[in-house]
Specification:
The chain is mainly α and about 120 residues long. About 80% of the residues lie in helices and about 0% in strands. It has four helices and no strands. The protein has helices at about 10-40, 40-50, 60-85, 90-124. Helix 1 (about 10-40) runs antiparallel to helix 3, helix 2 (about 40-50) packs antiparallel against helix 3 and helix 3 (about 60-85) packs antiparallel against helix 4. It starts with 10 loop residues before the first helix and ends with a helix. The relative contact order is 0.15.
Length: about 120
Amino acid sequence: MDAFALPKDSADEKAARAAAIRLATKGAAEIPLKVMETAAKSYQLLSEMADRGNPASISEVGVGLLAVRACVEGAAMNVRINLGGLKDEKSKSALLEKLQKISAESESQFGRIIQVVESKLTQS
């Protein structure tokens, strides 16, 4: 928002404002992408908890899974909304590729771990 408030009276100001908007827009997409990456790291711990944790706490693993998945998907929405304003097609393509990779890995991990959780919920 600060970049949009920059002056735009002269050609130099317009160029500086446009550059600041491009940089800010790219950053606005990169930050939630980092959130996606960070949140997805939780799947490893949740997997271990599902496989070897206390059977009485398996529902907490399920809740954790849902929270991580929601975090990843919510952050992905923030990436996508910001990609819409990004004019640099090379950066846009690279960020979209990362988003798709993290999303696919997240769904895969979620699916595998939730099967373990569901099977142990029915055993109790």
